[in-house]
Amino acid sequence: MDHSNNRVVDREHFLRRFLDHVIGDESFGLLLLDRRFRIVEVSSMVCAAFGRERSQLLGREAGGLFRRLPDPLPVDRSLLRGGSFRNRSYTCRIGERKREWVLDGDLLRDEGKAIGAYVIFRDVTHLHELEEQIRRSDRLKMIGEVAAGTAHEIRNPLTAIKGFIQLLQRPLAEREMSRELDYVEIVLTELERVNSLVGEFLLLSKPKKVELQPIRIGKLFEEMLPMLRNEAVMHGVSLHYEVKPDLPPVYADKEMLKQVFLNLGKNAIEAMDKGGSLIIRERRSPSASGGVTVDICDTGPGIPEDRLDRIFDPFFTTKEHGTGLGLSICQRIIHELGGSISVRSGAGGTIFSVAIPAASVPGQELVSGGGALPSDDV
Ligand SMILES: Nc1ncnc2c1ncn2[C@@H]1O[C@H](COP(=O)(O)OP(=O)(O)O)[C@@H](O)[C@H]1O
Ligand SMILES: [Mg+2]
Predict the structure, then answer these.
(1) What positions does the domain Histidine kinase occupy (predicted)?
(2) Residue with CA closest to ligand 1 atom 19
(3) CA distances from 341 to 149, 152, 256, 263, 289 (A)
(4) What are the pLDDT digits (tens) for 174-217?
(5) Are residues 201 and 177 in the same domain?
């Protein structure tokens, strides 16, 4: 029996299977080019980015094809002249989704002679998102620390100012000094604005004690709906809440969770300045870990794609009197609770989805150290 021959046949078979696998892979791409820059082989992932079938691409001259893509591929004939590269980044759009890729390219040689070139594509979208999240949470952490250190220092004098200003109201009224009374009103309103900004600031500082307990989302909304409904009525928005019975309880801090849904609900209502409807829907989370997802849907104008990346950034706002802290606070809280928050938006409106872990360990209470939980008001 010829063992050596056997081994060669197995190896080729093995490599062929591997290549078939790579060619069909959705997250790893391969492109082989001949000496005249024509496509010899192309994998599924790359076909998807080109929006073509593999059969339409094989044998085609690649240079023109790359240049004419909606997002031109940064690869040209210089590759055949030895212009190898590594980690070249490329952003492409596949349908609605934006993908981040990195490309490596090099010559393909046969006994020292160049016979063509290859390009390898890796999808790093997930890594990018992770980096973005870390960047954001680092920034939030810093802001939280500054907030914890300064917010009370701002609040205390504010309380004093408010007290003394209020003392002025009576004597002014007695002397019928209506203009001065108006000034006092303005000062008080502005003080209230500073105060609520400081309040949002404090929410960003790390809460001292997170009290995780099993919570029924339906019950939580029962308590919150009157408040949201009030806000909705004032803006001419109709509010629908779709209860889903039989959902498992989630494991979260009740006050923090309320804060999240209030912020999201308020944003939705504020987005519909010409009226519309706000729909709050709960469902079982699709992931295997269980848990509940709450969708906050509005029929507002939607969020343009180039803005979607920035809405969770602290201080990003498009509103005249916005603070840009609402979504940062939501994200901070949801991460703290071990959940996730995502957004989809289009011309028909926006959906924020909040996934909260299930109460799999009932009765357990997690306590984490840090700053102070906001409690005092001016
Ligand atoms: N449901 C929504 N529809 C449209 N835009 C939204 C929605 N929610 C948030 N945004 C955008 O995200 C920005 C940031 O929101 P947020 O952090 O709550 O701060 P603020 O409400 O103070 O502006 C808003 O200014 C707005 O442009
Ligand atoms: Mg807001």
Answers:
(1) 149-360
(2) 324
(3) 28, 29, 14, 13, 16
(4) 999 999 999 999 999 999 988 888 888 877 776 667 788 999 99
(5) yes
Which atom from ligand 1 is nearest to the alpha carbon of 322? 22
CATH number for the domain that contains residue 54: 3.30.450.20
Q: Residue 308: what residue type?
A: L
Residue appearing with tokens 């001259």: 61
Distance 271 CA to ligand 2 centre (A): 10
Cα of 328 from ligand 2 centre, angstroms = 9
Report CA Rg, the chain.
29
Pick the ligand that lies closest to the CA of residue 343: 1
Residues with CB under 6 A from ligand 1: 263, 267-268, 271, 298, 300, 303, 311, 316-319, 322-328, 350
- Which among 317, 328, 353 is the best mutation to test ligand 1's pocket, defined by most ligand atoms within 8 Å of the CB? 317
CATH number at residue 209: 3.30.565.10
Is residue 181 domain-shared with residue 275, that is, in the same domain?
yes
Residue 234 C-beta-side C-alpha neighbours within 13 Å: 9
232, 327: one domain: yes
Residues 228, 118 share a domain: no
Q: Round to whole Å and give the CA distance between 98 and 86.
A: 21
Whether residue 292 lies inside any domain: the answer is: yes
- Phi and psi at 24, nearest 5°, equal -90, -5
Mean pLDDT across the stretch 136-141? Answer: 80
- Ligand 1 centroid–CA 41 distance in Å is 46
Number of domains forming the structure of the chain: 2
Q: Which domain holds residue 95?
A: 3-123
Q: Which of 187, 179, 211 shows the shortest CA–CA distance to 364?
A: 211
Span 219-273, pLDDT tens digits: 999 999 999 999 999 999 999 999 888 899 998 999 889 999 999 999 999 999 9
Question: Which of 123, 151, 166 finishes a domain?
Answer: 123
